[in-house]
């Protein structure tokens, strides 16, 4: 088990970093053990999160590819460019002008492998704690952290319900999570409780521009999509939970250039989820994915 964050549920983390929790755990752990040493010359938390240094690319690439699929990125470790499924730097470019993270303690719910955590540190965040129940993403973060050695960015194999009840954060991010929740308003209420008075929340979701959409079965081949809210619905939930200064920051259609299959994520991606005769629709006949980002503040007195 990797170094644990004091004050967080250590027993749960130990249970999840275990072959009994996931059948691929030992293979992933072996991949981490096979990572070659690098004499790190420079680290960079820019669009491509990078570690510069001299190393043989073949064993490095082989070890990192054992942690396939890589969803969020991109990364570069030495000479190896990890061309992830998502151009997460494009999403960050849309968000960054609206963010103030200097000296902030941040919680990133559904953080994946922690890519956005590095970008938050670049903006001056004091500490980023990411949580994601998908163990593979936590192992990917450990691979990057093996070279970064910057323990201000954590990725823990936990669910939002398992965050210690006493924790409050200057900024709470929830990106790409709420449409997977059976009770989306309850999730917004959780965000309120995790945000310190005076702190901010950043909430991102696939949305329906024509009013709330409740898919029957899958949406864009994804399971467990319970509701695609309208941007107005996201703002209404934030207000009902007690947030103020609720604002829509961005609405953008997801393109097949931003989310696609690569050598580091060779499963089907967005292209295969769209109607081949009409890419404005999913294969199920719903509007193609559009994502919106909203932000709000918890009142100082709340």
Uncertain ranges = none
Described by strand count, sense and barrel closure, the largest sheet is: 7 strands, mixed
> What structural category do the secondary elements indicate?
alpha/beta
Can you tell me the CATH superfamily? Vaccinia Virus protein VP39
H/E element order = HHEEHEEHEHEHEEHEHEHEEE
- The rough form would be described as globular
Number of discrete domains? 1
Oligomer: single chain
CATH architecture: 3-Layer(aba) Sandwich
Please indicate the percent range of residues in DSSP E strands (runs of 2 or more): 15-25%
Give the strand line-up of the largest sheet.
Answer: 7-6-5-8-9-13-10
How many individual helices?
9
What is the fold named in CATH at topology level?
A: Rossmann fold
User: What is the total tally of β strands?
Assistant: 13
Mean pLDDT: 96
Rg (CA only) = 19 Å
Distance between the termini: 38 Å
CATH class descriptor = Alpha Beta
- Indicate the percent of residues in helices: 25-40%
